[in-house]
Structure formats: C-alpha cells, structure tokens
Amino acid sequence: MNKLQRMSAIAGLALAVCALVGCGGGGGGDPAVDTTPPPAGGGNAVNPGLTGSIYMTPVASLDLLRVDAATGASTPVVRAPSNKHLLYVSPDGSRYAQVVHDSVVGQENSEYMVLEVYDTATKNRLFKLEFDGFANNFGFSPDNRFLAAIRYPNRVGELNLAESGLAILDLADPANPTTVVNFSRTGKNVVFGYDWLPNNQFVYLRGDRSIVTGSALVAGGNETVKGTVDVPAGLFIGRTINASPDGTQLLVNFNWEDGVTQFDVWVTAADGSGSQRFSTGKYGGGASWSPDGKYIVLSTDAGFYSQGGASTAYCKRWYAPSTARNVYEGSPESRQVQYLESGKAAVMPCRAGATYLN
C-alpha cells in the first residue's frame, strides 16, 4: 500500500492498506494499553514527534480509518464492499483506489482485475478500468495525479516475479486515464518494488539490484539506472523500497537464512550505495519515513513458524529517529506506535492493515 510500501498496500484490506490486532509471543506479548508516559514535551501526542497520517484497516473489519499519527485520533474514510476489495488511499486522502482480482463472476483465478478510483469526499467514481493479468502495490503520487502499480502476466507471476514491471496511469483527466509507463518497457529485469520521489519522479528496484529512476511527466518514463544496491556479505536483497521525502535516501530490506528467512531494514543513499543497518531485531519490514523525514516507522513481525516443534509469533509496530542505527523495538530510542481506542492510548496492532504515508 506504502507511500507502500507506500502502500503496503494499504495491506490487509487495504496499499493496500496491512494490511492492526495485537499479537503476543516472543517478548511476552503486546500490552493492551501502553501506560508508559510519553517523552517530555509530548503534550497530548500518543506518538511524540510523528507527523502525517496512518491509514489502517483493523483486523476483521472492512473500514478504512485515517489515524492522526501524532494524536492517535481516527476518523473513518470509507468501507470496502467486501474482503476481496483492496483499498489504496492518496497521500492527502482526497482519492482512493479500489481493486479486486478474479473479477469474472463465478470464475476463480480468472486473471482479470478491476481498478476503480473514487473521490473520497463525494464517493463519486472517477473511472473504472478492467485489465487482464495481475497487479499489486498500487500507490498515488504525492500530488494525486498519477497512480502506479507493479504488474505481472498473472497471479502465479506475482509469486515468482515473472515479467514483473512498473505501470503508471496519468489521472490528470480522471475520466480518461492514460498510460505513461508500461510494464513491458522496464526490460527483462523484474521489478521488486518502487516508490515516488519529489516532482512526480519515481524510483524502482530491479532484480539485478539496480536502482532506476524516471519521470511520470515523460511518456515512457525516461528511465535512468542510478546505481546498484550495496548488499553486505551474507545477505540478499528483499522486495521492498521506500524513499525519504526529499528523495536522498532509501529504505530497503536485506534478508538472510538461519533456518527460516529473516530480514531487517537498512538505509542507503539514493543510488543504493553506503548501506547502513537501521533495525537489528530481525523480521523488520514495512518501513516508511515520517513526512518530515525525522522518524522511521516499521514493524517487527516474525509471523508464525515452527522452531524445534514450538510455534513462535512476534509482532510489534514501532518507530525511531531516522538518524539512529542498529536499533530495535526495545531500544531507548524507539517507541511503539499507539492510537486512541475508546479514548485511551492503545498499542496499534501489528497484524492489521496499516500504511504510514510520507
């Protein structure tokens, strides 16, 4: 949703939105309510320092909520027609995309998708588009004019990254959207993830570790390879990328195998060089900068796996200064993300759909 990454989706219901219910395990379980007082100067902020919005779809809900990142107060945005619909919201919340796949009635895996874009205030549909194939990670540009996604020839292609590429629609005339970047133009290298840069520029990560930038204002994207991601020894690159608000840094995931696949968030320069480790808790992902670039919000989510016959689950959503390095959810610099639930500050569930837009 995620930015994704902006969207993540917004993952869950969502980019798209995580798809938030607490999950225990690993560290003794998430508390239902965090009674720790905010740092000095927090005022009425449940997440001191954070700015912007978190769009979230609670677990077992079809409602998309906008959560003020600082105060934790939420307001409803829209309700999905069903759990088959994914919702992706624009950065300012004025538009949202609704996506459903397997859209041929009565035929599963039909490989047809329907994309609809709506005006949030009026709920009027701006356009409807049906297409063959599969797409995910829909994300609006910061000015709402463009809508991007990663496309695949089919759902199976999404699982093995076959022929994946970036596609971008120009919504300047929303009744007649035009394609400005076609996934077939990205060449033979598959696209792992993408994000928006300032001035309607975009950046994506290819399977050969190349960082590619381009402009949605130019037909075909006018793409340029900016560099290659610096992957530390013993690690391999993940499928996510998130750009800082000023476009000078990237968040990427590096993975490693230790019985199970583990991963953490790293910071690189805009060309992929100078990789520095941000999170050290293992299973760190879904990361995004705050709108002012001062904080990074992410989750540590081990999921469920079997280790020595015992199932382990561990999941927390937290944030820390973007200048910090080698931090984890329990570091002195970090704090769990909260929101207001029935008027009280509660830990935002990790495994619900949420996207922090920068």
From TrEMBL:
Highest rank taxon of the organism: Bacteria
Alphabetical list of InterPro entries matching this protein: 6-blade_b-propeller_TolB-like, WD40, WD40/YVTN_repeat-like_dom_sf
The protein's name in its UniProt record: Uncharacterized protein
